[in-house]
Amino acid sequence: MTIRFAVLGCGRIGKMHAEMLARQVPGASVTVVFDVVDAAAQSVGADIDARVATSLADAVSANDVDAVAICTSTDTHVDAMVAAAEAGKAVFCEKPISLDVAAVDRGLAAVAAAGVALQIGFNRRYDPSHKAVADAVKHGAVGDVHLVNIISRDPGPPPIEYVKVSGGMFNDMTIHDFDMARYVTNSEVVEVYAKGAVRVDPAIGEAGDIDTAVVVLTHADGTITTIDNSRRAAYGYDQRVEAFGSNGKASSDNTHQFNSVLATEQGYRRPPLENFFLERYAKSYLDQWDAFVAYVTAFAGDASVASPASGADGRAPLVIGKAALLSMNENRPVTIEEIHNAQQESNS
Amino acid sequence: MTIRFAVLGCGRIGKMHAEMLARQVPGASVTVVFDVVDAAAQSVGADIDARVATSLADAVSANDVDAVAICTSTDTHVDAMVAAAEAGKAVFCEKPISLDVAAVDRGLAAVAAAGVALQIGFNRRYDPSHKAVADAVKHGAVGDVHLVNIISRDPGPPPIEYVKVSGGMFNDMTIHDFDMARYVTNSEVVEVYAKGAVRVDPAIGEAGDIDTAVVVLTHADGTITTIDNSRRAAYGYDQRVEAFGSNGKASSDNTHQFNSVLATEQGYRRPPLENFFLERYAKSYLDQWDAFVAYVTAFAGDASVASPASGADGRAPLVIGKAALLSMNENRPVTIEEIHNAQQESNS
Amino acid sequence: MTIRFAVLGCGRIGKMHAEMLARQVPGASVTVVFDVVDAAAQSVGADIDARVATSLADAVSANDVDAVAICTSTDTHVDAMVAAAEAGKAVFCEKPISLDVAAVDRGLAAVAAAGVALQIGFNRRYDPSHKAVADAVKHGAVGDVHLVNIISRDPGPPPIEYVKVSGGMFNDMTIHDFDMARYVTNSEVVEVYAKGAVRVDPAIGEAGDIDTAVVVLTHADGTITTIDNSRRAAYGYDQRVEAFGSNGKASSDNTHQFNSVLATEQGYRRPPLENFFLERYAKSYLDQWDAFVAYVTAFAGDASVASPASGADGRAPLVIGKAALLSMNENRPVTIEEIHNAQQESNS
Amino acid sequence: MTIRFAVLGCGRIGKMHAEMLARQVPGASVTVVFDVVDAAAQSVGADIDARVATSLADAVSANDVDAVAICTSTDTHVDAMVAAAEAGKAVFCEKPISLDVAAVDRGLAAVAAAGVALQIGFNRRYDPSHKAVADAVKHGAVGDVHLVNIISRDPGPPPIEYVKVSGGMFNDMTIHDFDMARYVTNSEVVEVYAKGAVRVDPAIGEAGDIDTAVVVLTHADGTITTIDNSRRAAYGYDQRVEAFGSNGKASSDNTHQFNSVLATEQGYRRPPLENFFLERYAKSYLDQWDAFVAYVTAFAGDASVASPASGADGRAPLVIGKAALLSMNENRPVTIEEIHNAQQESNS
Questions:
Q1: How far apart are CA A106 and CA A112, in angstroms?
Q2: In sequence order, which ranges of A187-240 are alpha helices (DSSP H)?
Q3: What per-residue confidence (pLDDT) applies to D166?
Q4: Is B268 in contact with C266 (Cβ distance < 8 A)?
Q5: Which residues of A touch D268 (CB under 8 A)?
Q6: How far apart are CA B85 and CA D110, in angstroms?
Q7: Cystine design at A68: which of A84, A97, D79, D160 (Cβ 3.0–4.6 Å)?
Q8: From the CB of residue A127, how many other CB atoms can be counted at a distance below 10 Å?
Q9: What interface predicted TM-score (ipTM) does this complex get?
Q10: Closest partner residue to A235 among C233, C235, C248, by Cβ?
Q11: Max Cα separation, chain C?
Q12: D269 phi and psi, to 5 degrees?
């Protein structure tokens, strides 16, 4: 059985997903694509032989569509999720679901009401190196986890125009690390302490954001996670996770541009790291789709089947990010409970 | 400008090349495919929207074809090469050109007479890690090269049926290492000493072949190369090249299945190596096509433009393989000159 | 010229220093040794052909002594320092100088008044791997430093009896990391946030201490340092420092028990780390003595000659440790200024 | 019980052994030292509080001596061995026993006749990294061994004066690798093929020696060993051993000058290798003495107790070296049997 997709959004990430689903994912095909910029949809549609929908609603409700991949801009995710859920389709949604927790809750409620499958696009969970760390924890090789270290440094900052609308570094970049901390430990975060700084580019500070951060997360089970972020690592895209516990540690290393060493009187030299996230995480995107296909196949309306990255997994990092921002601004540890209470007040 | 290909042979390797050319190689497209097993050609043709030719001759001579990719069985390479050359097409030919040196010479003569471009499929030349070793030599980082070590061990032996027809381990497996030795040093081999053994599987010995070998090559510039081969490395596909010289050494390392380490009281553990050559060398196949497109574009009838892997590069490893076989059988060093002289006698 | 030492304290660390000074440090010799347990002094004295003093005062004031190495128990360091300074001897003092900042100030005042040389035993500054990180920062290879990560995990906890009197993990173990943070960045710490936990052994908690900690230090120049501590790493003595900045990063790796790899179907296996601090840091202890000899030789009464680890370097980590303890107990960031102010109040 | 040594020869290596035995080897002490250059003996004797003998005979026959360490020049080893054996002392002899096989046989005959313990100074057997390779083979972790690779490159050539008298590179440098091949495989060498070259320094060639070599050894059990030698590796002292077999491989890696990495836009850089053999192999020399003490203690006149490096282990590499020299000179494989037959003829 093949899962037939409607792909919403044909920008860089939507195009990548559409091509993967059309050509590289067993059990998947793309029936229809949509983008508010019609030319983008036409180009991708022609490339992969998919129909171009004239509206998001048409794409989502088509009879020959089983699942919807939401790759549009963040502010439109929830509406698309609700539409897809109401049409009874399985839903894949790129992260973040939304920057607004209340909107997230609206989307998740629609999914729950419709009883459809939902998976959030935290692709790093499927990276073979990071996954091996999580698996080592899950299978007990690390023992009780005491400490987790996440180093996550980009090769270079995004354009200032993006910085201005991204929702801030915690929402745009650290969100992956918040998810990684929950994924690796399998324990909820209960407290956050964050320090941020502008060290890479003053223009980022002028745009109201930071480019360097350290975050300390305390988990419900007592594990302490440190996150170390920078918008610019001169030696490439630096992505490391280490889980330390009573039996030892599991850690993921980086991928160099190639595997060669030059040894001279000056020492031993290896090349810098891979630079681009689509290249570094290529396999994780493919494996994410395999996980979605397996999940949707197993789900079949049975909500007890766990999503590889559930709605709750999509919501938690947003709340952690809010706590981190408050912590940084007020230079004090902030509990998740405090954020939840504030959220409930603002909801009521 | 796009180079339009006819792909001859739609087996495992031909199918991979056809799909790459159709989808992943800028400046390339596939017009027509052919296979003596028509169903194989139909399947690939449908997959990539290419015409299926009814004969090799039709595929090669089509007006909308600029280049021919010869991916058929080894014994048919030369006839296809001659046909493509006579049709004035650029030629890409999988290695080995042929197991028969006289046949190789016939093919190369046709290419020379027609003045067409020719590139042999020594894909490992484009592997980023091995290429970095060759580049370090070329750019002088290693200084004068004194010693080269090539370790080339397969994860497991091929089926016995293949062993019986492959032309022997030196022709089928070590041929890549003979090419690597010439590629890295940029110096011709003048003498060969080979030791072979059956250590992996007695059935390989019963089929008349070996599964374990050490070969010592002496180059015209005095460099000595050692090659170490096994048909079965329990820990994966082991592919290492090291060039040592007056300024130091350049070496290529292996790729592990993923980049994680588990550290416990028992020590630090990394996963085994990647197991499958198509996976290990995936990028080299793509880069090989980029090199072909660049070469054919630059060539434009000008035979002074050097091929990334010329006809002479395709011929030399066959001769080295013959010397290795004679050396192993008679347990003595054998010069390339001795093989050439014997070849000339048999030709006359 | 040889610097003649009186070694005070002949326990594990004093014995090691006495033997090194007697046999392995060019420009050093040991004239006299002392220990309150006379048998310990007699044994070391016989071993290295040194006189055994009948009192600390006699050892410190001897005419054939140029320098005093204070390796006694922590609570006696300051009195010994004052006595040595008043006798006009160069002083080497094991860390920590004292757990009491007022006492430290009394010792440093005596050293300043006497105009003698003083070096504190922060041996890790001389570890070739950590030193290379500090040197890379100093020489600009890392650029402006943004983030420092220190991972410092012992192979196993000390005896509970020691835990009860050590002054707590921050004073006994993390003190090295506080010093490392200042040494690598060359910037004072201005704020501390600490999380501690009992994860390794409940008995440590019952003794009033912690065994697991994360500390975030903010430096005057904006650098943020994270420290990750555990009393027990199953895979050995884990000691890593990483300094990240605008030009890249410098990091120190661990030493394995030996340099071998076993590769099988189960993967690649290296041995665990070296387990014992005297073995792991053996070279740092020797290089520390070379640095002391060079410093004392250059000093010659000229207080402008900088100590490799000055009295101020000995004092600062104690203050940071107090801030860390307060931060942990009250779960809030604590400034160094707050500790200084409290210290001044209690002094007045 | 302490084994009391007479140390013969107080040059660089003898001095090192005398100091180790006097200070660092449990169960060992040095009673007497001797050197034909009396000043050398006086200096070492004073340093370690040992008596200086007026003749080799006196040193060897002293009543308060249990074992003799022969560290004199190679041409005097056998006479010293005979004298020590006849005096009933346990014998440690630096390698090579002699460059003359007949002389070796005379020494071994004296040892056998006296029934004393004998250990040859192949210190690399005790290097923890190489030993781990041999142990992995011995304990079956590698399975049946098929191939062994030994890379052994010095950081720089010895003085030409030494080259002229060393007996040639095979006797002076490769001898360690011949021993390593036997030690790791535990199988005798039956055939040798050697290629040599002068690539590092023409003056070495003018002195009648080579500085670059590849040697292929065939063992009795079918294992093939390759040895790769150079007198000068720009990046330091390169010492690697790899044993490959049916279950995988065990390999020893090099030690860098320190364990740090600098990562910048130019890549990841580690320091060069340790440069000096006494530093690189320091631990192996100590462990060699521990092995000698254990062996002599267990021996106690019982010749069935195996030496960690027996007289036969000292003899075999000399014969392999002769085969290598003949092979190189005549460019053909040479059997060990051929050398033995020639030796017997010349003896008769």
A1: 10
A2: 202-206
A3: 85
A4: no
A5: 235, 256, 269-272
A6: 78
A7: A84
A8: 27
A9: 0.95
A10: C248
A11: 69
A12: -125, 130
**B–D: how many Cβ contacts below 8 A?**
95
Are the C-beta atoms of D112 and D104 separated by less than 8 Å? no
Chain-centroid distance of CA A228 in Å reads 17
* Residue B53 tokens, joined: 């030719």
Q: Which chains does D contact via 3+ CB–CB distances below 8 A?
A: A, B, C
Question: Which of A129, A195, A240, A268 to mutate against chain C (most C CBs within 10 Å)?
Answer: A195
Across A290-305, b (16+ Cβ under 10 Å) vs e yields: bbbbebbeebeeeeee
Question: Which pLDDT score, from 0 to 100, does residue A303 have?
Answer: 79
Across the beta sheet with C118-120, the strand order is C51-52, C28-34, C3-8, C67-70, C90-93, C118-120
**Contacting residues for A6 by C-beta, under 8 A, at least 6 apart:** A30, A31, A32, A33, A34, A53, A59, A60, A62, A65, A67, A68, A69, A89
Handedness of CA A25, A30, A34, A38 (dihedral sign): positive
Q: Which of A182, A126, A137, A168 has its CA nearest to residue A317?
A: A182
- Alpha-carbon gap, residue A45 to A56, rounded angstroms: 15
Which of B234, B244, B331 comes nearest D248 by C-beta? B234
How far is A87 from B319, CA to CA, in rounded Å? 67
Mean pLDDT of A119-137: 97
C247 interaction partners in chain A (CB closer than 8 Å): 234
| DSSP 8-state code for residue C257 | S
Q: Rounded to whole angstroms, how far apart are CA atoms A81 and A90?
A: 10
- The answer to whether the peptide bond before residue D26 is cis (omega within 30 degrees of 0) is no
User: What is the arithmetic mean of pLDDT over D188-214?
Assistant: 97
User: Is it the case that residue A141 has pLDDT exceeding 80?
Assistant: yes
- Name the phi and psi angles at D89, rounded to 5: -90, 150
CA distance D33 to D43: 10
Angstroms from C250 CA to nearest CA on chain A = 11
pLDDT single digits (tens) D105-136: 999 999 999 999 999 999 999 999 999 999 99
- Residues D315 and D156: beta-carbon distance below 8 Å: no
pLDDT of residue D264: 97
Q: Is the pTM of this model over 0.90?
A: yes
Q: Which tokens hold the place of D310?
A: 């027996």
CA-closest candidate to residue C8, choices C84, C63, C106: C84
CA A347 – CA A325 distance, rounded (Å): 20
* Structural tokens at position C92: 């080497």
Residue C345 CB burial class (10 angstroms; 0-12, 13-18, ≥19): exposed
pLDDT at res. B160? 95
Low-confidence ranges of chain B (pLDDT < 70): 348
- Token representation of residue D187: 């199988």
pLDDT tens profile C197-215:
999 999 999 999 999 999 9
Q: Which of A241, A271, A236 lies closest to A253 in space, CA to CA?
A: A241
For residue D335 the two structure tokens come to: 């059997």
Instruction: Give the tens place of pLDDT for each residue, D57-109.
Output: 999 999 999 999 999 999 999 999 999 999 999 999 999 999 999 999 999 99
Q: How many CB atoms lie within 10 A of CB D344?
A: 9
Q: Which of A247, A253, A257 sits opposite B260 (nearest CB)?
A: A253
Q: Is the pLDDT of residue C99 over 90?
A: yes
pLDDT, average across residues C48-64: 96
User: Taking a C-beta distance cutoff of 8 angstroms, is the pair A85, A311 a contact?
Assistant: no
Nearest chain A residue to B258, by CA: A129
How much helix, strand and coil, in percent to the nearest 5, is found in chain B? 45, 25, 30
Among B250, B192, B198, B261, CA closest to B220? B192
